[in-house]
């Protein structure tokens, strides 16, 4: 598979918010640097995702010189000095699990609460008390994640997206699926059969196919839920295995470093 190329690299500083596209990125044991390093919690200390509050998809963020800048098209931005505002540890709920986090100072509380129309706070991953990848998702003893759903890195091929769109009345974009890596140069769904991937000097183990949920039915631009639950409904007709509708694959870093869009990528079965 020497024709494989990296089309896009994305990371999502705040869970369920807008991505940042880059040409190169540092790879850590928990995935892309700064990927899902922050999350928004509600008044019950539960992480909010766009499944519960699609307005999160309106929020963009940038990280520069230790400052996190939040913005939306409708209101002035807010900036936080991350070197000063990471405060006390807090236990939070992410889906059905409890996780450790650090509170980001109150500078963002009002801004987030007003943007999302509910009481909200920003938290950061507790780097010394990370979540383990669950064994049911093929996690091993030293496999950890940030605020990602179940695995460190998510990959989709452009060919798989094109095949899906050929079956839909209205095409969707890659951001309906929020990948970290988009590749091209393979057959549609060929990634299902890979066991490992090397990108530049970094190595990744393919751990499982990516199970999809209703998040995929939220338009990333209009933030409206599709009236016919597309593309999930169409995917269910040909990508369902047991109780899971799969699209894309999850990767776990095994040799860390940095990758770029110009790196050679080699996939092994």
UniProtKB/TrEMBL annotation:
Pfam families reported in the protein's UniProt record: MOSC, MOSC_N
Span of domain MOSC: 120-268
Signal peptide segment: none
Domain of life: Bacteria
SUPFAM superfamilies: MOSC N-terminal domain-like (SSF141673), PK beta-barrel domain-like (SSF50800)
Protein name per the record: MOSC domain-containing protein
Organism whose genome encodes this protein: Zobellia barbeyronii
High-level lineage: Bacteria, Pseudomonadati, Bacteroidota, Flavobacteriia, Flavobacteriales
